[in-house]
Amino acid sequence: MATTDGIVRNALGDLDARLDHWKQTLVDLCRIPSISAPGFPPEEVRRSAQAVAQILRDAGVEHVEVLEIPGVHPYVYGEWLHRPGGPTVLLYGHHDVMPPGRAEKWLSPAFEPTERDGRLYGRGTADDKGGVMAHVAAVGSYLRVAKTLPLNVKFIIEGEEEIGSRNLDRFLEQYRAKMAADFIVLTDTRNYDVGHPALTYQLRGICQVDVEVQGLHQPLHSGLSGPVPDPVQILCAMIAGLRKQNGALNVPGLYAKVARPGAKQLARIRKLPLSEAKFKKDSGMLPGVRLWGESQFSLFERMWTRPALTVIALEARPFLSSSNQIIEAARARLSLRTVPGMDAREAGPAHREEAHHQAALRREGNRDDQGHHAVVDHRPRGAGLRGRAQCPQGGLRQGDGHGRLGRHHRLRAAVRRSPQGRALHPYGRRRSQHPGPLGEREPPPGRLGEGDALDHPPLRRARAPAAAVARRRSRGSCVR
Length: 480
Ligand SMILES: [Zn+2]
Known about the structure:
CATH class of the largest domain: Alpha Beta
Oligomer: single chain
Bound molecules: zinc ion
Strand order of the largest sheet: 1-2-6-3-7
CATH architecture of the largest domain: 3-Layer(aba) Sandwich
């Protein structure tokens, strides 16, 4: 009987020997455009689920099935449970992908994985079909070599991760027994660098807010500009006001509970090799562009331990259909990265404030004292950004506690934020419930400015023990 070390060595040898096979399997899987976002064909996500199920079967995983909930992109489940009394690991990944985004930003087609300089470029090659394949290949090679596994293994490959795992709660309720495990390993995280395996043990959370500023009933000829407010400029000023000159966020109370990492964690972070120049290059920053954020914190501390804000969508009027007008409304989707200490459940005061506001608005017949519409719609469970969405013109205030909202402008905010520490559901999105004057146009959830450079795993051979194969990925991450 070979020792465990011997089995692992042989399994790694098998992985190396069959790397081309696994690579080709990944390429074939990535050719399926399994985009879970609305507006893309759901049949492709189903096709991808079936392909993943077959890959699991071929690797020796048992009782593989495509799990369904009506109206939900399918999950894939499989297991190997021949270690009675032994621990059970649940290996999580997802087979759905983001939309390809702008075609001209890709050097090769999004759904035709292409190898360049030892990396595979294509949508899903890293996030997360590459991660799924790392798990499957590890289990498959171990089974081939040893005809057994050192512990019980379950796979769950989700089909709607990229749209915020909207039905995960329902799924867990329905398939609770299948999900029972002693621990979970996710492959949907970042790897530090080629040759530097990484284990992700903490991720920032996310809180998204949609804000709409409306100042006019209809577009107006720009000849009237001057006295007539421009909602686009107002929105831009509001957003600009969320950031201080020194790089910190200008949101009162935001940092009050932000936990500082412990001395041991900081020491580990500071020990990691770091080249700002390489980071900038890998991130696609243009020459001369400076790093952002709080300069008193290191780059990794800023990225891993500090809250941060991104405008992930900004909508006014496209160049193509623009005309010489002040447009009536503008919308933005703001995304706040949260860190330990920031408590997503602290929405109580916001609820009370909202109730207060709504009561005040009812009293005022939904019009403010100047006769303008004033509507606020905070989705339940909090507004991480509330209290600072302030218009410098003094017109728009959110949460001033006096029931005066949206003077001159209309504000809509749809908020969804996630508690820290939900292993399988670290974030979510909620689309605006209102069509709005710009029409209901859910922006495609593709990451703005994104190209394939953010989505590629290195093709180095796995060197980690089979049961602990970490995600091999140098850059890019999901929206988490
Ligand atoms: Zn992912």
